[in-house]
Amino acid sequence: MSAQLIDGKAFAATVREKVATQVEKLKEVHGITPGLAVVLVGEDPASEVYVRNKGKQTLECGMNSYEHKLSSDTSEADLLTLIETLNADPAVHGILVQLPLPDHLDSDLVINAIDPAKDVDGFHISNVGLLATGQKAMVPCTPLGCLMMLRDHYGSLSGLNAVVVGRSNIVGKPMAQLLLRDSCTVTIAHSRTKDIAEVCRGADILVAAVGRPEMIPGNWVKPGATVIDVGINRIERDGKRKLVGDVDFASAVEVAGVITPVPGGVGPMTIACLLANTLTACCRAHDLPEPSDLTA
Ligand SMILES: Nc1nc2c(c(=O)[nH]1)N[C@@H](CN(C=O)c1ccc(C(=O)N[C@@H](CCC(=O)O)C(=O)O)cc1)CN2
C-alpha cells in the first residue's frame, strides 16, 4: 500500500496566510511592520534562488524586506559591521545570513554576532542553549517546519519513538530537541551508529537529515511509520538533473504510513517558518503576544 503524502507546499501556503493575517493586524492596531534583513555573500546559484524567494515571500506577507548582497571577497570585518548596523536598526526584527558562507568567513563567528533576539534562523549559541534547556528561543526554520507538520498529523507526539538520522547543528540536533520537548523518545543516529537499519526500524517518526542522496531504503522503515525527509540533493540520473531526498522514496512510500516528498515536502516549510519567526521576533521586540500556532 502507498503512504499518504504530506503536501509541504500547501502546508507552507497556510503558514504564510496565517503570518500575513497577523502582520495585517500588527500594522492596523499597532502601526508596526515586521522587517526581515537577508544577507547573501557571494554568487552560489542555489543560495541566490533561496534569497530571492525569501525576499518575495516576505513582501507577499506584508513585511518589509531588506536584501544585502555582498561580493564573494567581502571581508569578515565588513560583514560584521553590516550585522552591527542591522542589530541596531529598529526597523529590522529578523536577520538572516544565508549559508553556506564562502570559506574565508567563519560562520560561527558571523552567526554569533547577530543579536539573538533577531536571529530568526535560531542558529545563535544563545538560542541553541535556550532550546536545549526548554526555554523561549528562536527555533531553526527547517526543524520548526517538520514539527508543525508532525503536530498537524498526530495532534500529540507524546510517547512516540522518534529517530533523527543526522546530527547537524542546523537540522539534526534542534529537531531532536523539539521532538524531546514534545515528549517523544528520541534517538539521534549517524554515520557511526551500530546497526542503523534496526535503529530506524524502531521509529514511529523517522526524520532523515543526513545530506546523502536516497541513503535510507524502504526496508529501514517500520510499516506505517511517518517519514520526514529533510534532504535536498541534486543528482544526475539518466542524463537528467534531479532533486532527491535522503530517503529512497520509491521503496519507502510502499512501507511508510505517511511521507514527505522531495521536492514539495519539508523544503517549502523552511521559508514559511522564517516568516513566522520574523513575526515572532517582531512581537517579542514590542512586548506583544506572539501567535502560538506559529512557534514551537
Ligand atoms: N541561513 C540559512 N541558510 C540556509 C538554510 C537556512 O534555513 N538558513 N537552509 C538551506 C536553504 N534554504 C533556505 O535558506 C532552503 C532550502 C530549500 C528550500 C525549498 O523550498 N526547496 C524546494 C526545492 C527547491 C529547489 O528546486 O531547489 C523543495 O524542497 O521542495 C527552501 C529554502 C541552506 N541554507
Automatic annotation (TrEMBL):
<keyword id="KW-0511">Multifunctional enzyme</keyword>
<dbReference type="GO" id="GO:0006164">
    <property type="term" value="P:purine nucleotide biosynthetic process"/>
</dbReference>
<feature type="binding site">
    <location>
        <position position="232"/>
    </location>
    <ligand>
        <name>NADP(+)</name>
    </ligand>
</feature>
<dbReference type="InterPro" id="IPR000672">
    <property type="entry name" value="THF_DH/CycHdrlase"/>
</dbReference>
<dbReference type="Pfam" id="PF00763">
    <property type="entry name" value="THF_DHG_CYH"/>
</dbReference>
<comment type="pathway">
    <text>One-carbon metabolism; tetrahydrofolate interconversion.</text>
</comment>
<dbReference type="InterPro" id="IPR036291">
    <property type="entry name" value="NAD(P)-bd_dom_sf"/>
</dbReference>
<protein>
    <recommendedName>
        <fullName>Bifunctional protein FolD</fullName>
        <ecNumber>1.5.1.5</ecNumber>
        <ecNumber>3.5.4.9</ecNumber>
    </recommendedName>
</protein>
<dbReference type="InterPro" id="IPR020631">
    <property type="entry name" value="THF_DH/CycHdrlase_NAD-bd_dom"/>
</dbReference>
<keyword id="KW-0486">Methionine biosynthesis</keyword>
<keyword id="KW-0521">NADP</keyword>
<dbReference type="GO" id="GO:0004488">
    <property type="term" value="F:methylenetetrahydrofolate dehydrogenase (NADP+) activity"/>
</dbReference>
<comment type="subunit">
    <text>Homodimer.</text>
</comment>
<keyword id="KW-0028">Amino-acid biosynthesis</keyword>
<dbReference type="InterPro" id="IPR046346">
    <property type="entry name" value="Aminoacid_DH-like_N_sf"/>
</dbReference>
<dbReference type="GO" id="GO:0004477">
    <property type="term" value="F:methenyltetrahydrofolate cyclohydrolase activity"/>
</dbReference>
<keyword id="KW-0560">Oxidoreductase</keyword>
<feature type="binding site">
    <location>
        <begin position="166"/>
        <end position="168"/>
    </location>
    <ligand>
        <name>NADP(+)</name>
    </ligand>
</feature>
<keyword id="KW-0658">Purine biosynthesis</keyword>
<keyword id="KW-0554">One-carbon metabolism</keyword>
<keyword id="KW-0368">Histidine biosynthesis</keyword>
<dbReference type="GO" id="GO:0035999">
    <property type="term" value="P:tetrahydrofolate interconversion"/>
</dbReference>
<comment type="function">
    <text>Catalyzes the oxidation of 5,10-methylenetetrahydrofolate to 5,10-methenyltetrahydrofolate and then the hydrolysis of 5,10-methenyltetrahydrofolate to 10-formyltetrahydrofolate.</text>
</comment>
<dbReference type="GO" id="GO:0009086">
    <property type="term" value="P:methionine biosynthetic process"/>
</dbReference>
<dbReference type="Pfam" id="PF02882">
    <property type="entry name" value="THF_DHG_CYH_C"/>
</dbReference>
<keyword id="KW-0378">Hydrolase</keyword>
<dbReference type="InterPro" id="IPR020867">
    <property type="entry name" value="THF_DH/CycHdrlase_CS"/>
</dbReference>
<dbReference type="GO" id="GO:0000105">
    <property type="term" value="P:L-histidine biosynthetic process"/>
</dbReference>
<dbReference type="GO" id="GO:0005829">
    <property type="term" value="C:cytosol"/>
</dbReference>
<feature type="domain" description="Tetrahydrofolate dehydrogenase/cyclohydrolase catalytic">
    <location>
        <begin position="6"/>
        <end position="121"/>
    </location>
</feature>
<dbReference type="InterPro" id="IPR020630">
    <property type="entry name" value="THF_DH/CycHdrlase_cat_dom"/>
</dbReference>
<feature type="domain" description="Tetrahydrofolate dehydrogenase/cyclohydrolase NAD(P)-binding">
    <location>
        <begin position="140"/>
        <end position="284"/>
    </location>
</feature>
<comment type="similarity">
    <text>Belongs to the tetrahydrofolate dehydrogenase/cyclohydrolase family.</text>
</comment>
